[in-house]
Amino acid sequence: MRFGVVPSSVRRDVLAWHGSAGQAWLDGLPKTVWRLKRLWSLRIDGPPYGGGSHSYVVPVRRDNGEQAVLKVIYRDGENAAEPTALHQYAGDGAVRLHEYDPETGAMLMERAVPGNRLKSTRFFGHRTPEAGWRRIGIACGLYRRLWRPVAAVEGFPELPAATEMLDQWRSEYSDPQGTARRGPGAGRLDLALDLCDRLSDPPELGIGNRDTHLGNIVSAEREPWLVIDPKPYLAERAFDGGYFLFMSQLLGPHSGTELLHSVAEGLGADVERVRAWALLRAIDHLTEVEGERDLAAAEATVAALELG
What we know:
By secondary structure, the protein is α+β, with helices and mostly antiparallel strands. It folds into 2 domains: 8-110, Phosphorylase Kinase, domain 1; 123-307, Aminoglycoside phosphotransferase (APH), C-terminal lobe (Aminoglycoside 3'-phosphotransferase, Chain: A, domain 2), CATH 3.90.1200. 46% of the residues lie in helices and 13% in strands. The protein has 9 helices and 9 strands. It has helices at 8-40, 82-89, 129-146, 162-173, 189-198, 237-251, 256-267, 271-288, 292-307; strands at residues 43-44, 55-61, 67-73, 97-101, 106-110, 206-209, 217-219, 225-227, 232-235. Strand 2 and strand 3 form a beta hairpin. Helix 4 (162-173) runs antiparallel to helix 5 (189-198). It is globular. Pfam families: APH_6_hur.
């Protein structure tokens, strides 16, 4: 099978976010995939996976017949260290990294089979509160396992620091002429600045994950569930809870204090620091949201997290 058509979501997002550089990446994809196929002795084993944002991901087979996944990323500050994390996880709770191409950031990874996403997996009584709590427990258990001290590895990118996110928010939110001060989240920016100060001195540092959610966990044979697509940062344990708690509060079905404590306990992290990271994520979302319905949901999420 030859190079497959780039999924529309990937093409759209890469062009929208990266303009001419994104177009150059798209134009070079066929040549990149062809080179990696030869380098790693691969053959395409199906059409590219859809639903991504800035990665071309396609099933392949290695020369020994083993199933695998070839992932060619549009490399940016958020995903450049993905191979570093996968290398250090060594298959413990996440898909294994078989090969890494420093030139492009591309990876050859374990293919999780059957690969069903946790967020859409039907448990017994899948619409009941108990099934929702089960999903949360599985996710927090995996991300808790993945948090670990960082060991520098030659040839792999360094992890960005979560404190750099705080610095960026400080810069954006303290600018009286900035767009954030004119947007729907303007009334929460002083709170956000205070939260940045509270989180600036983390009690511990290890491999945290910026993009923790139920869609990045899939079913597998080697382990019941494996994390895919990590976005690693040098961060405290509570950092992992930021996006996960924010998204869980935004999308439901659970919310409020019980959700906060469940996530913090599941991650083994401080409750108030988890809440602070989630509030920052929620306020950041509020500053960018558009549309009356989405705005109402974003404001409700921030309000719920403020109450804790």
